[in-house]
Structure prediction request, 382 residues.
Amino acid sequence: MSLQRRRFLLGLGTLASAPLWYPLRGALAATGPARQWPGYASATVIDALGGPGEYGAGPFAPLSARALDDIRASGLSAVNVTVSGVGSYASNPEETIRNIAYWNGQIAAHPERLLQVRDAGDIVEARRSGRLGLIYGFQDATPIGEDLDHVDRFEQFGVRVFQLTYNRRNLVGDGCLEPGNAGLSSFGRALVERLNERHLLIDLSHAGERTTREAIAASAAPVAITHTGCAALARLPRNKTDAELRALADKGGVAGFYLMPFLREKGQPTAEDLVAHIEHALNVCGEDHVGIGSDGMISPVRFDGEYRRKHAEEVASRRARGISAPGEEPDVYTFLPDLNSTDRLDVLAGLLSRRGHSDARIGKILGGNFARLFGESWGAAR
Prediction:
């Protein structure tokens, strides 16, 4: 979840769990109410794109007692939090430093709840100690500018995940909204090489189709698509084709599936849509290459008139800035109403179990696959 989106959400008002507005349809509805998965407490649960915080606290506000309680209730072991800006070269380096400083401050203020992740061992320690591991990540390469040495500098600050593009074109390549679909630039190929050399994970979530394919081919290491959906089920620019997903899996990478509007071409998605995307990806990629990247905050949303108003304003703002993707609509919301709770991944695991998926497979989807990828990508402790 981008910090820009986090700032928007933080202004929405006091937070409480919303009712489960939409019943599960079709096959899921026939199974009856969702129930939690017995293996959740012993699983390594990773959200490949998200973040903690309570809506209504204000930008860069300290994490509230309730937000900290929600972290514990979520059962998450680690989350990839976005520290970069997106879509602009003008201020993103300074914004990124400020974002890193904010999260460093929250970790220092709450060492009993938060832990910065610099290597895979930190995820193990976070889970062992009951803390949430924060993985610093970029959702755009703009903070790097034209200087590859900035990769090394941001690595020293703890950034471990580098997304190449955010929807639009940058110096690295084309995002998923660029009609030219021009792929990686020469600078982009050099960046891929530098990230491989530094054992940092490449993320292709907002990349264009050609950029995605070329980056997977160019990388000497497995890559991630931390938050996406399946284009075969919803033909929207933010979703990946079967060919892209297969190429990712063939390289050893992992795709995380989001709880976002892009799971359907029209209307409000629900848990059933998420399960459909996960099951399609399992058929395309195999169970070792599928995970979760919610693209949302850990705390649930209170759905009220203020939220609807602010959401519509945010959609309008993103459209004006040219970074809004098809599927972002004023009346389609950026969470799944029947998974709008702190234990949403536990509930999702229960749904998958009731669908007949094995405990071993569910453990991989909830975080085992991303834990493996992080370990392979980051190598030994730094």
Observations:
- The longest helix spans residues 359-378.
- The chain has 13 helices and eleven strands.
- The first strand starts at residue 46 and ends at 47.
